[in-house]
Known about the structure:
This protein is an alpha/beta fold. The chain has helices at residues 15-27, 65-77, 147-157, 172-185, 206-213, 315-330, 332-336, and strands spanning 3-11, 33-36, 52-54, 63-64, 82-85, 89-95, 101-107, 111-122, 126-128, 137-138, 144-146, 164-168, 191-197, 220-222, 224-230, 237-242, 255-258, 261-264, 268-270, 302-304, 343-348, 352-356, 359-361, 366-372, 376-385, 388-398, 404-408, 420-426.
Amino acid sequence: MNTEFYDIIVIGAGPAGMAAALAASEKAAESRIALIEREECIGGILKQCIHDGFGLIRFKERLTGPEYAQRYRDKLSACTNIDIFISTFVTHIQKQKEDGFELEFINPVKGAFKLKCRALISATGCRERTDRQIFIHGDRPSGVFTAGQAQAFINLKGFLPGKRCVILGSGDIGLIMARRLTLESAASGGSVEGVYEVKDEPSGLTRNIVQCLQDYGIPLHLSTTVTRLHGEERLEGVTVTRVDKNMRPIAGTERFIPCDTLILSVGLIPENDILDELHPDMDERTKGPKVNQFMETSIKGLFSCGNALHVNDLVDYVSESGRIAGERAAAFEAETSAKSADEIPVIADKSLLYQVPSRIKTGENAICYFRSSENSEHAKLIIRSDDKIIFERKYAFLKPPEMERFELKASLIPKGTKELFFTLEEEP
Length: 428
């Protein structure tokens, strides 16, 4: 196989990958960039998200998913140094003994081929948990879909997955699909029987609870989960059961709900299997690689961004991390010849579900993201440099489903700092 060289290869052409490729092109117009996408069209999940609410931060407009993606497609089409490969799958990644990476691909046009690069950006997004991963008992009848599958069927293919639907999980896609299914099923006499959430708090954004459920009269049942599927060839109903504070089913609370469709919105997992051969340091909490504020992993020349790094609430933040990774990848070659700056480990206690980045290069500002581990009113985020408080920010209300973002100025970090410690404290 012939091997072609690119300065930067971006794997995944969703919102993070498109932003990364565009930023790298703008930062280094002379560089060669390859943007790899396994589907037939770039855009990622945005293609099927026809609801609005995208771009409020990035473009200061309320756009639908396809409109948001088109903004980036238009910009990419004007870049002469970006080659886009569609219907292309990565089969192997190898770190070169010298600098750079060698990757093997396959697609219907070129067959099997190899590309080399000096910097690699992983923007592979995330995948949905399935019914097998949450151990629902029963047979395996048709009629069980993840929320993303149902969304693609309706918005891209024009097919209604069923008429009488139950939704398990109150993640944002599940809430949006509750509204979508209600609208599409009304004409055919269908309905959404309810949304069932195993936790005692909804998992989606507050705005989606209001706009997708309350505005349409769709009931939300908290501390309740689906414990069994009924039906052989096609789903005929589900058993739902109340759970205790440890999320264990409570005997005697079972109810049978007739339905022909079960939609699962039970969480997202960053998609990083293709990086297994490279063995970057991984964060057990985010399920993505550990990075610094420039999205650099522990592997020299490897960057991670978007939902492959950690699951974001808003596409604007996905694009932001892609932009940061693209800009840094474009400057990577010049950096390799210079002495790298020291990096300070970032540690968070149990009051935070997670924080990104995991380390911060000294002398550089850092955009930080975090989620609280539980609902908290009048909370204060405190950052300590060793034992000295260097940053404080107050929040009226924090909840785990809603990610927070702030910028930490380099000037606040004292010289000689050995570690930065993040914690949340409730104010009296």
